[in-house]
Amino acid sequence: MPDLQNFSITPMAAANINVPRATISAQITDSQTGEVLADFTGGNALTFPGVLTTLTAAQRQELINLIATTIVFMKAGLE
């Protein structure tokens, strides 16, 4: 995989844009026991982008970092 160089993210003011909404359903289970650790199905399903408001500032920054690197590679035709 190519290396990402000179990468930075500069925070800016919040933007109001229209984005597609999506319902995210999933369960997280323990791979050893099968125990359900988190259930985001049915009434517990997550709605994007609304779920972003439930994240801490640190979690939102981590998400921005993940999204930003993916965008850079997509725009470069590498994803």
- Beta percentage is 15-25%
Structural class estimated from helices and strands? alpha+beta
Mean pLDDT over the residues = 95
Helical fraction equals 10-25%
* DSSP summary: helix tally: 1
Q: Report strand order across the widest sheet.
A: 1-4
Number of strands: 4
Question: What's the N-to-C terminus distance?
Answer: 10 Å
The largest pleated sheet is described as:
2 strands, antiparallel
What is the 3D shape? Answer: extended
Rg calculated over all Cα atoms: 16 Å
Give the SSE string. Answer: EEEEH
Q: Low-confidence parts lasting 5 or more residues at pLDDT below 50? A: none
Q: How would you describe what is shown here?
A:
- With 79 residues, this protein is α+β, with helices and mostly antiparallel strands.
- The protein has a domain at 22-75.
- Helix content is 24%, strand content 19%.
- The protein has 1 helix and 4 strands, in the order ββββα.
- The chain has one helix at residues 57-75, and strands at 22-24, 26-29, 36-40, 46-48.
- A two-stranded antiparallel ribbon has the order 1-4. The chain has a two-stranded antiparallel sheet with strand order 2-3.
- It is extended, with a radius of gyration of 16 Å.
- It starts with 21 loop residues before the first strand and ends with a helix.
How would you summarize the topology of this molecule?
Layout: E1 22-24, E2 26-29, E3 36-40, E4 46-48, H1 57-75
Antiparallel strand pairs: 1-4, 2-3
In short, what is this structure?
This protein has a domain at 22-75. Helices cover 24% and strands 19% of the residues.
